[in-house]
Every structure is written in structure tokens, then in C-alpha cells.
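Design a sequence for this backbone.
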């Protein structure tokens, strides 16, 4: 039978946390916990610790993480203000790389799944935006702890038969930076440098880039930065001409500012303007996936 962990409220009410079966019974316990005076933050911490303890010991040992380190979560309410991490603090994190480039520096968190050490190839996945204006999207609350991210990466690796690395974009899921400054050159240079650092750290061979929405934009950007180690790229519903999209929205809906993208940045990294910089490779496969309504 699967290993079970129970989360208890002050009165002793508890809910079993069963790996792979979700947390469908957590809501009644949450309501009772709040009624009894347990804070949401405290309950979230207990839930994260429960999830961390429910992970196989081999997974915890693989990354040399304690239950407390696995339980670290990333509150959505912190996304708008950004995350600040010094180089020294970054060096103490076990699943993070410090990157420096001409646009600045960042501490980028990542979450690997599968046999990553010495892998001949691995998928580097970039998630979509988690902020709409000042409001965190639902995706900001999904799998927003170290334990949950590692579990997600392990699941993706198992389903696809290749190691996965979930890379947290600046200002999200533990990475330093400002998510409000997404699509600016600094974001993409930071992610590009992070891929280099993670690849070198684990001795990974070729890489597969994958991303969704804003993460797909990152895939396109990294290709235009001249990478020669990408054997395949899969980008879904990305924004590759953010200036063109913003212009369309301004003229059809009256929203935005002329000459700026939808986040009101007037000097974003507009991927479509740099496609000539994609390194030629006749064997590389690139899949651009979208919907007619995108």
C-alpha cells in the first residue's frame, strides 16, 4: 500500500495524504482548521511537509534535501513584489544556479526529474505566466512548493521516458527577480545562462526545449540566442511577436500603450525580430503548436 501521511488540525481531525491521489479531502479539514484558529499559512506548511514526507526516500536522497527544504513553498501573494536572493544565499540552495550576464544577475531555481546526472539528453521546460496585472493566476498556486515541483518533474519524466528539468522563470517558484518584467531581455538571458549552468552541473548532453504560453516565448528566445545544443524544441501558444500582438489589442480593444507590449514595457525582447539568429541545424526539429484562437 502507498505510504500515508496525515495532516492534523488542533482538535485532532486529520486527512490522509496519498501520493498520486490528489488532495480531494483537504477542503473540509481546511475549513475546520480555520474555525479552530489555525492560520492558512500554518495549514499550508503542514500540507507541504506532508507532501514532502510522502515522497519516496530515494527522491529525497537523490537531491540531498531535508523534509523542511522540500516543504518550502512560494506564496502567490509575493509574486508581484518580486524575489530577492543574494549570491551567497543562492549558493546555499541545492537546486539553484547563480547566473550573470550583460543584463544583470539572477538566482534561478530548477526542479529535476528522472536520472539527470550524465543524461545524454534532457527536457528543459518553462512554465507560462503566473501573473495578470497585479493579480496572481491560478497557475501561481499549482504545485508551488519544492516537493510538489519535484513530484511534477518526476511524473513528466516517467511519462515521457526522458529526464525533465522544470526551470522557474525569474520571480516565480523560488527564482529571484521580477515577474512583472517578463519578456524583457534580462529574463531570457537569465534562463539561457541557467540552462548552461544546469547542463554543465549534471553533465547533460543535448537538450530539448519546451514551454507553454510565456514559457513558449522563452523557448523561442533561447533559440534566437544562438544555442547549438538543442535537438528539439516544442513551443505551445507562445507570444513570438509581442509588439504586434500589443498593437492589435490597442487598435481593436483600445487597451495598452502605443509602442509597448501588453505589460506596458516598451523595449521587450521581441522574438520574431531575431529569428535570423537561430543557429542552423538540419537535424533539429521545432514544433510550434497553437490554436486558431490564440
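Sequence:
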Amino acid at each position: 500500500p502507498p505510504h500515508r501521511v496525515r495532516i492534523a488540525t488542533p482538535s485532532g481531525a486529520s486527512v490522509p495524504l496519498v501520493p498520486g491521489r490528489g488532495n480531494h479531502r483537504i477542503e473540509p479539514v481546511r475549513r475546520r482548521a480555520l474555525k479552530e484558529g489555525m492560520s492558512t499559512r500554518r495549514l499550508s506548511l503542514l500540507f507541504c511537509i506532508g507532501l514532502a514526507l510522502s515522497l519516496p526516500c530515494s527522491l529525497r536522497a537523490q537531491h540531498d534535501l531535508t523534509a523542511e527544504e522540500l516543504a518550502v513553498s512560494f506564496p502567490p501573494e509575493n509574486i508581484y513584489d518580486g524575489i530577492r536572493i543574494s549570491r551567497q544565499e543562492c549558493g546555499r540552495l541545492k537546486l539553484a544556479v547563480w547566473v550573470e550576464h550583460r543584463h544583470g544577475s539572477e538566482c534561478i531555481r530548477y526542479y529535476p526529474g528522472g536520472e539527470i546526472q550524465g543524461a545524454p539528453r534532457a527536457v528543459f521546460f518553462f512554465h507560462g505566466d503566473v501573473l495578470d496585472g497585479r493579480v496572481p493566476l491560478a497557475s501561481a498556486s499549482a504545485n508551488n512548493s519544492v516537493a510538489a515541483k519535484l513530484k511534477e518533474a518526476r511524473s513528466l519524466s516517467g511519462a515521457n521516458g526522458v529526464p525533465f528539468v522544470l526551470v522557474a522563470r525569474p520571480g516565480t517558484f523560488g527564482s529571484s527577480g521580477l515577474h512583472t518584467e517578463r519578456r524583457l531581455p534580462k529574463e531570457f538571458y537569465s534562463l539561457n545562462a541557467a540552462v548552461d549552468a544546469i547542463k554543465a552541473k549534471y553533465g547533460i548532453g543535448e537538450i530539448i526545449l519546451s514551454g507553454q504560453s510565456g514559457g513558449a516565448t522563452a523557448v523561442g528566445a533561447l533559440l534566437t540566442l544562438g544555442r547549438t545544443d538543442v535537438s528539439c524544441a516544442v513551443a505551445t501558444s507562445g507570444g513570438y511577436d509581442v509588439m504586434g500582438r500589443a498593437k492589435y489589442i490597442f487598435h481593436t480593444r483600445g487597451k495598452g500603450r502605443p509602442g509597448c507590449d501588453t505589460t506596458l514595457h516598451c523595449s521587450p525582447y521581441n522574438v520574431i525580430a531575431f529569428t535570423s539568429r537561430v543557429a542552423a541545424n538540419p537535424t533539429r526539429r521545432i514544433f510550434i503548436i497553437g490554436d486558431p484562437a490564440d
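Residues 1-27 have pLDDT under 50 and may be disordered.
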